Amino acid sequence: QQQVKQSPQSLIVQKGGISIINCAYENTAFDYFPWYQQFPGKGPALLIAIRPDVSEKKEGRFTISFNKSAKQFSLHIMDSQPGDSATYFCAARRGSTLGRLYFGRGTQLTVWP
Amino acid sequence: ETGVTQTPRHLVMGMTNKKSLKCEQHLGHNAMYWYKQSAKKPLELMFVYNFKEQTENNSVPSRFSPECPNSSHLFLHLHTLQPEDSALYLCASSPAGRVIDTGELFFGEGSRLTVL
Question: Which end of chain B, N or C, is more open, meaning fewer C-beta atoms within 10 Å of its C-beta?
């Protein structure tokens, strides 16, 4: 059973556009929701994360929107740039379980110049 | 050197070979992890070590054998693998358990394994 469902699998956006990636979860015990960014040939790196006590977190052009009642969260990339082209993974963690992150399948984002 | 370093970056092995993957972290973290990344699948947690002690084995076949001699080094010993074990194996570390634990995992660049 997949703990975190991510969509879309791939996304093509024009430069300057908004990229939106969605994730959904079932386990209400999850209390930490990070997004990781992975470039080809590199390991994933933390991009931004949110805890369920807030509905939105913004860091530069990247925003996480969190809907606790719907058990959904999404990543918005404003003014998307070709350098944002990468694979994005959402994840969820339950309490203090040491690094027990449940990842989505990933979204391959391509930003056209 | 900084961050999490994995060697080798690429490995090709036959099903009867024995090889090892190495991971070293220079971040002063106390927890280390092995993840498996296959195409079109979520990252799969394999093993977790905290202060050199294994705290999680996610039902990984015995042909994968981890070793953690200290908090900075982690190995994954491979023997009699199957072609379906071909994947990118990622090592990660975190300060888990400390006051400064932000929940962030720091990944290495991975070891791309191909089993023939």
Answer: N
**64-103 of B, contacting A, C-beta below 8 A:** 90, 92, 94, 96-97, 102-103
Q: A15-49, pLDDT tens digit by residue?
A: 999 999 999 999 998 989 999 999 999 999 999 99
C-alpha–C-alpha distance, residues A24 and B116, integer Å: 37
Strand partners, B54: B49
Tens digit of each residue's pLDDT (9 = 90 or more) over A65-112: 999 999 999 999 999 999 999 999 999 988 766 667 899 999 999 999
- Tell me the per-residue pLDDT of A41-60, one tens digit each, with 9 for 90 and over: 999 999 999 998 999 999 99
DSSP 3-state assignment of A27? coil
User: Chain B partners of A2 at a C-beta cutoff of 8 Å?
Assistant: 42
The answer to whether A46 contacts B105, with C-beta atoms less than 8 Å apart, is: yes
Q: Where are the alpha helices (DSSP H) in chain A?
A: none
pLDDT at B56: 85
Judged by CB atoms closer than 8 Å, whether chains meet at A43 and B31 is answered as no
Residue A111 sits at the vertex; the CA angle it makes with A109 and B3, to the nearest 5 degrees, is 60
A76: left (phi over 0), alpha (psi -120 to 50) or beta: beta
Q: Which residues contact A53 (CB under 8 A, 6 or more apart)?
A: none
